[in-house]
Amino acid sequence: MPKKIEPKKYQWNYSTDEKYSYTLEEYILKVHDIIVDSVEHVADCEGDMLMSEYRKLIDGSWRLEHLKKQIEGEEVK
Fold it and tell me: How far apart are the C-alpha atoms of 16 and 28, rounded to whole Å?
């Protein structure tokens, strides 16, 4: 019987805790939710709400950069 191949998992943050590891598909869906929801709300926001959505976009950008480094095999710190 062939050995089941486990999909590669990527760290959501710098923790090595397995509960913060996701498959590529799971990771992309989590980032999608952060970015798409924020972009949809930005048009209707001002002041503090705008800054909150901007922070979420920055977080989504950081998560994508973190994933890119992992895919390229760079050491993430």
Answer: 19
